[in-house]
Amino acid sequence: MATAPDNEKRLRDAGVILGTAPKKLEEPFQAVVDGMTPYEVDVLIALKRRLDEADRVLGWDPRKGEGPPSSTRMPP
Amino acid sequence: MPSASARLSRKVELVLPAYDAPGHMLLEDPRAAELYPAYLAAASYVAMSMVPLMEAALERCRVLAPADPVAAGLVDYLERHIPEEMHGDEPGGELLEDLAALGVDPDALRTGPLPPKVAALIGTLHFRIRHAHPVAVLGFLWLERYPPDLAAVERLAERTGLPRAGFRQLLLHSEVDVRHGAELAEVLDSLPLEPFHEQLVGLSALEAMACMADAWLDVVAGGAAAAPAGEPRAAARAR
What we know:
Largest sheet of chain A: none
Shape of chain A: globular
Strand content of chain A: under 5%
Low-confidence stretches of chain A: 64-76
Distance between the termini of chain B: 53 Å
Mean pLDDT of chain B: 89
Helix content of chain A: 40-55%
Structural class of chain A: mainly alpha
Distance between the termini of chain A: 24 Å
Order of helices and strands of chain B: HHHHHHHHHHHH
Largest sheet of chain B: none
Number of helices of chain A: 3
Number of strands of chain B: 0
Number of strands of chain A: 0
Oligomer: heterodimer
Radius of gyration of chain A: 13 Å
Low-confidence stretches of chain B: 230-239
Radius of gyration of chain B: 18 Å
Helix content of chain B: over 70%
Mean pLDDT of chain A: 75
């Protein structure tokens, strides 16, 4: 299965990898991210958008530390 | 070099926060008692599908085993694990009993329309098991690596005030899945996997966890129909 060179950028742009993550990912994660197929990245991004939408519907703002802490724990 | 299970765990870490979120949302929600039956109903499709998926994988593994060491390595595990995952006379039967204790009609779940995303997941896995490789089932089973948290289930039972009989399977799985998850990692690491196999397992794991998170978000963040409760059984069968 083909992998894509822009996986990390797409995941960072979507907030799956948070802006607070180091600019250079740790090697184990870098290998995982680089090895993902475009479809796998699509799955993660779609779910992150769904989660963001749910946060909005429920009135929680994870950036302010409100609501379930899990939504702010996107690794690494 | 990291093991296959370590590589899979790292990949799944990308989806874990979203997988965990609906449970936290449910626990914090003042409507938790109202939402919990539908939340558990969404999980029931996993319980009902797990054994049939493993049986399909086992059947395929037996066919492939003479020329396929990965399939051959799965036969023993699947033969052992299928009875462990029955949880009732029918696959997932005990979870349906928990739902009945909450007022949900199990027949409506058996015969009514599945959430389309869940149906797509189950269908996709059957297709992959048959046409790609039966090792794909391990991605679905990877859900067992992330069992319900015992303390959180106890808190949910207390907060909702719902019958404790409606929490039996969550409480059970908070314990047994710790062991099952460890065994699953051992099996994965024992197989002579090629990159193709790992990709298939990883994709199936990501899809399964994303699908379940999405289905639970439908419940806790609106848009989902309530679990079928109080519906005449004959009407449910007729759909």
